[in-house]
Each structure stands twice: as C-alpha cells, then as structure tokens.
Fold this sequence. Notes:
Blueprint: E1 13-14, E2 19-20, E3 25-26, E4 31-32, E5 37-38, E6 43-44, E7 49-50, E8 55-56, E9 61-62, E10 67-68, E11 73-74, E12 79-80, E13 85-86, E14 91-92, E15 119-120, E16 125-126, E17 131-132, E18 137-138, E19 143-144, E20 149-150, E21 158-161, E22 166-170, E23 179-182, E24 185-187, E25 194-198, E26 201-204
Parallel strand pairs: 1-4, 2-5, 3-6, 4-7, 5-8, 6-9, 7-10, 8-11, 9-12, 10-13, 11-14, 12-15, 13-16, 14-17, 15-18, 16-19, 17-20, 19-21
Antiparallel strand pairs: 21-22, 23-24, 24-25, 25-26
Amino acid sequence: MRDASTPSPDGVFVAAGADVDPRAVIGRxxxxxxxxxxxxxxxxxxxxxxxxxxxxxxxxxxGDNVKLQNYALVYEPxxxxxxxxxxxxxxxxxxxxxRAVTPDGCLKGDADxxxxxxxxxEGAAIGARAVCVAPVTVGRWALVAAGAVVTRDxxxxxxxxxxxxxxxxxxGRAGKPLVAKGDGRWVCPDSGAGYQEADGRxxxx
Length: 205
C-alpha cells in the first residue's frame, strides 16, 4: 500500500489514508485522495484525479486526465478513455445477474460469475449518482445526467436523462446543449463548432 503526503519524483500524490495496491500502475502527475482505493493491476493514466472514497477495481483501465469525484465506484473490468469525468457517488457496475449466493445457497466466489465492464469513451461525463449498468458503452463526449440509470449504449455526443436513461438532446465537447440549425445541423453555443446529425448519430463537421 502506498501512503504518502507529498508528491513522488514523478508527480504522483497519494494522500494519507488512501489504499493503492503496489501492483497498480499510476501515471505521472496523478493525485489520489483520502480513503480512495486502487486495486491490484489497475492502470491509471497521467494527471488523473481520484477523489475521496473513490474505488477503482482490479484491472480497471483509466486514460489520461480522468477525474473520479468523491465516492465514485468503478468496478472491473471497466475501461475509461482520456478526459472522462465520473461524478460523485456514480457507479459503474460489473454483474449482469447479481446474486450473493449460488442456487444451492453457497456464498459465490470468483469462479461463480463473470464480470462484465462498462466502457466510457473519450471526454464523456457521468453525472452525480448516475448508474451505468454493465456492459453498456457510453460514447465519446456524451453526457449522462445526474441520477440517470444507463441500461443501453449511449451514442457519441448524446445527452441522456432519466430512469432508464433516454436521449433528450446533443452536447458538444464543451458540454453545453447544442442548438439546432435545421437540416440536421447543430452548433455549440460556446465554441461555434458545428455538428451533423444522421441516422440517430452525431458527427463533428
């Protein structure tokens, strides 16, 4: 277990009380705060920020510049792209058929089930207390609203809300809802970047 109060030579900071397995790989400049747990064989990219009480399961992969807010739970074998945001107390599950015991009442072990992971694309954001039910994929730069429950794959740039989550619009890289301009054209109100919608998908133009 690493437990340090000052950054290491590679800029990694592990707060006192955090639990980082020595078999985990932590990228340069990453910060891990109080009570967070990073399990064995997890790999975190550069300049990530893991908030208080967050959990990263065995073998989970995080890209660079990922932000896990306080008490976010990322269960194995999740895969998160660069720049992903996971809000406070959000959960990425890994069990399609959850049970504590087998049909004969015995406590389940690792051999009694197969973990399935959630995949989060580059730049996507998962709001506070949202739940992504494995094995869903959330596309690049998508935005999952706070409290949503994602049970189906989310397209790139989609804005989804509710239980179960449904698409109610599109967002750009800045995270702001896009403005419709007709003929399937959408524009970011902040950056002016353009997007084109076709067949339920959005692409940058």
